[in-house]
Amino acid sequence: MGQEWKEIRREFLTGERALFASDHLKIYDTIFADGESPLKESHDLELAGVMFKWKYPLWYCRNVAVKNSTWFDMARAGVWYTDHIVIEDSAIEAPKNFRRCHDLTLRNVSFPNASETVWSCEGVRLENVTAQGTYFAMNCQDVKAKNLTLYGDYSFDGAKNVEISDSRLLSKDSFWNSENVTVRNTFISGEYLGWNAKNLTLIDCTIESLQGLCYIDNLVMKNCKLINTTLAFEYSTVDADIVGGIDSVLNPSGGTIRADSIGLLTIEKDRVDPDKTRIICRQNS
Question: Which of 43, 152, 217, 224 is the most exposed place for a label (fewest CB within 10 A)?
Answer without folding.
Answer: 217
